[in-house]
Design brief:
Shape: elongated
CATH topology of the largest domain: Alkaline Phosphatase, subunit A
Structural class: alpha/beta
Strand order of the largest sheet: 6-5-4-7-1-8-9-2-10
CATH architecture of the largest domain: 3-Layer(aba) Sandwich
CATH class of the largest domain: Alpha Beta
Distance between the termini: 95 Å
Number of domains: 3
Length: 630
């Protein structure tokens, strides 16, 4: 009889422990939800119904994890004696204590960053140890707190069992099981399967490259490279911002179509599956991205079924990819992975298991960019040497030319100078010279391995210096066996890169890609549209993000839309008072005749059609502006 009472007592304590875990998980999720919706994120621009749905799903999911872990402990305890079972139920306090201690640690970290601009991410040595001690002390008191609660009389047992059952049952309904599947779009012969390397460096203007006629010898290796390549004289970007630019390169879609321009923008729904890496993956390519965490990061920007590795992270180990493959939608996957990553990164850091990456410093401190760029080139060779069974697709983005201050690995033009201002020409030219040296190392490495003539190499830049869109950017493509070498004078755009690669592989361009292949006949200069934002803000420890104060309809993150046609550019401001301006592109080769140039009315009509087709509501003021030019 006493044994039965004791068993019932232990069982009720397990129920109580599960209830504690659910409450602690709720506190953790609610805290993270408030943090997420009050900073720039994809949840910032969703309606409140979607925000609360994400909160509900998060509470159910993390509560279920806590309950499941306690259920496993309970089943294990059944293998032991009665006394041991009582010990197991006390040990179960670890689960709710972990949730609550993690919440408190994140709150402390958020507070120190807000007040002192110091947190776990930039703690080293003793600082990491102090955070570790703080966490262990907090965890200990949380554990003691939940253990104490177990000694109290358990009440409302049936109600608590009902709540726990609802949580367990609820987990089967929060998975929408994403049914978005992209059918194979590969059509045509796929006999040619060369390696493909997309090499870009941040903010390189063609006007500062000797390969494009610059008076300084800034690109001697690229000068030689272009002799065996398809050289585009007049190329332009489709985005003033890195994220929007590289996503448009990979998807072949305008940023206005994908709504991806700047962190924390990310691909959603079908856009997450429609891109060049997915097509190459269907051809058995092994896809790798070497960029910058959070900025040039396919996982952060929501590319699904594309890359096998991104910035050293294997796809199967990325939490966003994991949740997406389970079946969660974009917003749920983003929030759940954010919760996991924020606490796991900090715990691994303070336990001296892995250094936490400060994305803000990676972009703002160019001395680190210089070192990272060199490492990326070395990583390319490691990837090539390790993966010899499959064709490789490698996208690499270097940051040494980013600015506004530069720390070039070579000091020729800036020798004996001090960098007293932003974007000083001599330092900028040296950063391009160092990029050229790294590019030369890449070519030498491919040549020494005997695979240069079985590799497509695309050299380009995300935008011009200082996020310019009305300046020419490099586009040079070397095909295997020097095919298609020559010069293209007609203007091209980064949006053309993916269709060109597919054309070489004899694969028909999918309907979703809006660029065109530059190795197929081109009869005229297509207008090139680009967009940009001016409202990014640097948040130390987090990175550069859109300022949520400007994420408002009708154009949200887009502050202007730009058009280049022949030697002229046209710009429409997408913030009141919606001004329209125009000018001339410097260093444009082979300008068009006056009769070929667009009128302001024609340029505005192109803007209107682009925005309308991509689902934007056009304010009446823009229609009035268009009418004034007719």
């Amino acid at each position: 009889m006493l044994s039965k009472i004791s068993n019932n007592r232990v069982l009720s304590q397990w129920v109580q422990q599960c209830f504690h875990a659910a409450i602690a998980a709720l506190i953790f999720v609610l805290s993270e939800w408030i943090f997420t919706i009050t900073k720039p994120s994809i949840l910032s621009i969703t309606n409140w119904g979607q925000k609360f749905l994400v909160l509900f799903h998060g509470i159910i999911f993390f509560s279920a994890i806590g309950i499941l872990s306690l259920l496993i402990q309970y089943l294990i305890s059944l293998l032991f004696s009665q006394r041991a079972r009582s010990l197991f139920v006390n040990i179960g306090s670890v689960v709710p204590a972990a949730f609550l201690a993690s919440t408190i640690l994140l709150m402390i970290d958020n507070f120190t960053y807000t007040v002192f601009r110091f947190g776990i991410v930039n703690s080293q040595g003793i600082g990491r140890g102090i955070y570790l001690i703080i966490y262990l002390v907090v965890f200990y008191f949380c554990f003691r707190f939940f253990s104490f609660l177990l000694t109290l009389r358990v009440r409302y047992i049936r109600l608590k069992v009902g709540v726990l059952l609802l949580i367990v049952i609820g987990t089967f309904f929060i998975l929408p099981f994403n049914k978005l599947k992209v059918e194979s779009i590969v059509q045509g012969s796929t006999e040619k399967l060369p390696n493909i390397i997309l090499m870009s460096s941040d903010g390189v203007s063609a006007s500062h490259m000797s390969a494009y006629g610059y008076e300084r010898q800034t690109t001697p290796n690229i000068d030689d490279f272009k002799k065996d390549s398809l050289f585009v004289e007049n190329n332009f970007t489709n985005s003033a911002n890195t994220v929007g630019s590289y996503i448009s390169v990979l998807t072949g879609k305008y940023p206005t179509k994908t709504r991806v321009l700047y962190p924390p923008d990310m691909l959603r729904d079908i856009d997450a599956f429609e891109h060049l890496p997915a097509i190459l993956k269907s051809l058995n390519y092994y896809n790798v991205q070497l960029g910058v965490k959070h900025y040039v990061d396919a996982y952060s920007q929501g590319i699904l079924n594309g890359f096998d590795e991104v910035n050293g992270q294997i796809a199967q180990n990325d939490t966003y990819i994991m949740f997406s493959e389970i079946g969660f939608n974009t917003t749920d996957s983003y929030f759940l992975s954010s919760c996991f990553d924020r606490i796991s990164e900090r715990l691994l850091h303070i336990f001296f298991m892995r250094n936490m990456v400060d994305s803000y410093e990676l972009v703002t401190q160019n001395d680190k960019s210089t070192t990272n760029d060199k490492n990326k080139i070395e990583n390319i060779f490691s990837i090539i040497d390790y993966n010899k069974e499959k064709p490789l697709f490698i996208q690499v983005h270097l940051m040494g030319t980013h600015g506004p201050k530069f720390s070039p690995g070579i000091r020729v033009f800036s020798a004996n100078q001090e960098q007293t201002e932003n974007r000083m020409t001599d330092f900028y030219d040296d950063s391009i010279l160092y990029f050229d040296q790294l590019f030369g190392n890449l070519i030498d490495g491919l040549n020494s391995r005997g695979i240069l003539d079985n590799t497509i190499i695309v050299l380009f830049s995300d935008h011009g210096m200082g996020s310019q869109v009305n300046t020419k950017t490099p586009l040079i493509i070397r095909f295997p066996d020097r095919e298609y070498k020559g010069t293209i004078v007609n203007q091209a755009q980064n949006l053309d890169i993916a269709p060109t690669i597919l054309s070489y592989l004899n694969i028909e361009k999918p309907e979703f890609m809006e660029g065109q292949s530059i190795i197929e006949p081109r009869f005229n200069n297509e207008p090139i549209i680009s967009v940009g934002t001016r409202h990014g803000m640097g948040i130390q420890g987090i990175g550069w993000m859109l300022d949520e104060n400007y994420l408002s309809p009708p154009f949200y993150q887009f502050d202007y839309i730009n058009l280049v046609h022949c030697q002229n550019w046209y710009r429409l401001e997408l913030e009141p008072p919606y001004n329209f301006t125009q000018g001339e592109v410097k260093y444009y080769l082979n300008p068009c005749s006056e009769s070929e140039l667009l009128t302001p009315s024609e340029a505005l009509a192109i803007f209107k059609n682009r925005l309308t087709s991509d689902g934007f509501d056009i304010p009446s003021e823009i229609f009035e502006l268009i009418s004034t030019y007719k």
